[in-house]
Amino acid sequence: MNLLLLAGGSSSRFYPLKEKNTYEFLGVSVVEYQLKRYINFLQPNKVVIIVNAKIEEEIKELVQNSNISADVVVQEGDGMAGAAQTGLSYLDPEDELIVANMNDFFDDSLFAKFLELKSSGSKRNLVTGLKTKTYFPGGYLVLDDESNVIGVEEKPGEGNEHSSEYVRFVFDYFMKAGDFSRALDEASSNKDDVYEVAQSILMAEKAFELLEYQQEWRSIKYPWHVLEVMELFLSKLEGETIADNVQIAENVTIKGDVIIESGVKIFEGAVIRGPAYIGKNTIIGNGALVRNSMIGNNSVVGFATEVSRSYVGNDTWFHKNYIGDSIIEHNVSFGSNAVTANLRLDEDEIYAMVKGEKIPTGTTKLGTIVGSNTRIGVGAMIMPGVKIGSDSVVGPMVVVQKDISAGVFLKTVQETVERENKISITDKNRDEYSSKL
């Protein structure tokens, strides 16, 4: 059996963040984490990873660091179909094949159920269906009376999903890779669904069984999905794991499930409330609070800063800030008293602009999303769901109410008036005020 991992998208909807497949959770990149999981459970004969040209070298380096043998191949053609065809040309058409998305995260029980079906002697292709209770804007599996998958109903709309209660996600098993390759050659569509059309062609010829899945599933598509995946990783922490050379001052509170990496310094009065992850050589300053968050390496959570339910990258500095439900990438600095707003005044769902389209985020709490190499001035206020591009500067006291492109300097221009002072200060006595303190 061979494994084809798809990581070839451009991550254009992930703006202002960088490539989603190289993101780190608990100090491990998505690529390394997924490779080790798939190989541990499936033990494939060959692994092919499809990437876009921009990240080819970075992915190759991550694969090499993981000491895993895998071919990293640049995608040719468009969409998932193009990615799959690119990978299939490197695989034996007679071999069994699993196709999966690199940035889909699910419970290990799916591997166990797949292997159980395989060991039972099943001789059918498999399509994974996520059992849903509420509408999801995806492809719904069409089943016959014997629970064979006979088609996919793409985004039928809420209330119109008559096919089944199973939404497909990409963990597809083919008895012969060559069958799927042939179907891809035959498939055509005016939409970006050639992969699904090819599956439907094959379903008309070959038996497909439902691989049912009912546990948690997360996928990274939009930037705020980083917080959902972070939450999934944090939920798996158990107990305290604190490196030997961590420096912890007196009167520090550490509660819950935490990982604190080597070289971390935690100063007096700081509170770390798990689940939480603190990366290597990071400093948690006096009176700081970190809860339900991941902090990267070499960062500083300075005096009186609160970081809640947020993802923070490497080399990022805070000083007396509130960072709530936010994603802050690498080499970002927040000046004193700069804050993120994470809740609308009407407490309604937060929307974000993605490629000119207003997209619901599915949450009522979302702070800011800041790209790398950015500086936020003292006293700046960033409104819920606002995205700030990389290599940008937000000046002091600016209220940021809409997205900022990469490479922008944003400032507020105000008028300063200078005139003669007619207020006498010397005859003012504050004894009366003092007596009431």
Instruction: State the helical fraction.
Output: 10-25%
- Overall geometric form: elongated
Q: What's the overall average pLDDT, rounded?
A: 93
Number of helices: 8
Strand fraction:
25-35%
Kindly state the number of beta strands: 41
Through-space gap between termini? 77 Å
Widest sheet: strand ordering: 15-18-21-24-27-30-35-38
If you consult CATH, what is the topology of the largest domain?
Spore Coat Polysaccharide Biosynthesis Protein SpsA, Chain A
Tally of separate domains: 2
What's the CATH H-level homologous superfamily of the largest domain? Spore Coat Polysaccharide Biosynthesis Protein SpsA, Chain A
Given helix and strand content, the structural type is: alpha/beta
Keywords: Acyltransferase, Multifunctional enzyme, Nucleotidyltransferase, Repeat, Transferase
Family: In the N-terminal section; belongs to the N-acetylglucosamine-1-phosphate uridyltransferase family.
Protein name: NTP transferase domain-containing protein
GO molecular function: glucosamine-1-phosphate N-acetyltransferase activity; UDP-N-acetylglucosamine diphosphorylase activity
